[in-house]
Amino acid sequence: MSLKQHLPSVVEIAREAGKLILDIYEQGDYVAETKTDDTPVTSADIAAHKHITARLSALTPDIPVLSEEAAGIPLHERSQWQTYWLVDPLDGTQEFIAGSGDFATIIALIDNNRPVMGVVYGPVSDVVYYAFEGDGAFKITPDEGTIPISTHRHRQDTRNIAVAISRRQNINAITDRLDPAWNYHLVPLGSAALKSCLVAEGAVDCYLRLGPTGEWDTAATQCIVEEAGGRILNTHLNPLSYNERETLENPNFITLGDETLPWGAILTPDDRLLD
User: Cα separation of 209 and 231, whole Å?
Assistant: First the structure.
């Protein structure tokens, strides 16, 4: 069986986990704790993690699963994996706790250190984004069914750019890194994955992320965004890497819709992006 043939099952697994999360969210009956890295985790994260891990392990017994909620696998062990699942059971835990509804379930398949499959499910909106390498990117909505998506392409220099940002991001930290010669419309949202998916479907031009994220936050969306015509790069405009470092933390990154725009100038006036 080719890796692509697993895609419908993975979409279903993401939906199942998302429904578990949504039930807990709507009931408001959950336990929240703080992990050693000072990030929150809830009983909804754990329930989704257990469900996804069990279902993926049954679907592909020979493919390891690396989840945010069980990420303590050393590089010397995981570097032996040619193919593995990379999962964030609940992306946007802070938004889950805050009650904003901006959270998602993320499942990616990594092959030879590249995301080749990505599935993102937003339980509140009941929307799925998905892609497989070489096959384009798609969105499933309750009203429209399955539709192809693509990034917004600027056919002329309008100097207007819509920028998705984290709802809890310091606004000045973002605007300080953007050339004031351009006009920016900032779009706050919770889940990192959902913001990148907005780029993939052409709703915004980019998503600038300053601050800690894990490889599980970007892998699925990297596949989706690239298949939709965009890129996810670090803020020096170099590609992200997967399973090549002891740490699983990403650098600051930007999700780009139209790579032909002069991002080097938009993002790096006066060399302000030297992290």
Answer: 14
Residues in the chain: 275
Query: Residue 120: pLDDT band by 50, 70, 90 thresholds?
Result: very high
The predicted pLDDT at position 170 comes to 81
Cα(161)–Cα(263) distance, integer angstroms? 11
Give dist(CA 252, CA 82) in Å, integer. Answer: 26
Nearest to 140 by CA among 132, 150, 149, 152: 149
Report the relative pairing of strands 160-166 and 206-209 from DSSP bridges: parallel
Average pLDDT, the chain: 92
Nearest alpha-carbon partner for 49 in 66, 61, 33 = 66
Q: What is Dmax (Cα atoms) for the chain? A: 53
* All domains in the chain, ordered by first residue: 3-149 (3.30.540.10), 160-271 (3.40.190.80)
Q: Is the pLDDT of residue 275 over 50?
A: no
- Please report the sign of the dihedral spanned by the C-alpha atoms of residue 185, residue 188, residue 192, residue 198: negative
Q: Residue 17 in contact with residue 52, Cβ under 8 Å?
A: yes
Whether the model clears a pTM of 0.90, i.e. scores above it, the answer is: yes
Asked if 19 and 47 touch (Cβ cutoff 8 Å), the reply is no
* Residue 157 confidence (pLDDT) above 70: no
Among 201, 24, 238, smallest CA distance to 120 is for 201
